Amino acid sequence: MERYSPFIITGGPGAGKTTLLDALAAHHCVTFSEVPRMLIEEQSKQEDGILPWNQLAAFAELCFIEMMRQKHKASSSESLSFLDRAIPDICAYLNFGNEQVPSEVLEQAKTGYQSIVFTCEPNIETYVQDEVRPYPFEEALQIHRQLIKQYQSLGYRCITVPFSHLDQRVDFVLTESYAHLGLMA
């Protein structure tokens, strides 16, 4: 298979993105874990950890460094690759928090990814609030809307992944990905 830019799976907190990516990995796709969640878990263990709810700009900088690494690694894969969030998410979260988006972040958000983005919307039936996801459900929906608005403003076409059985979600994402690339699934 040729090398292709990675696909992004995004959406509000608690929308089932990680579960979907785990299932895509079982279908021989290359997947990359959600950077913000990993960093929140790491930074929470440190006495002066950088967390998005008290140091959003500094946290975004940490995310940017790791997401650049993921983008580069995903772009060198010869299999379909999927990222659980990506640099455009940083722009959306900074805008949501009324913070300035650095020009380098904005420029990197526009390139190196497939032009379609898969979005997963939080669902009240499955939403779980925890230490890493402290948002109430309504705020998770607001974040979801901000993410879609941000991606569209950067020129991406957002495709909503239907809320259905996991196997159907995987089939949907794979079918759409292969069709976008002009390949047979």
TrEMBL record:
This is NadR/Ttd14 AAA domain-containing protein. It comes from the Bacteria. InterPro entries: NadR/Ttd14_AAA_dom, P-loop_NTPase. SUPFAM superfamilies: P-loop containing nucleoside triphosphate hydrolases. It comes from Vibrio thalassae. Residues 7-169 form the NadR/Ttd14 AAA domain.
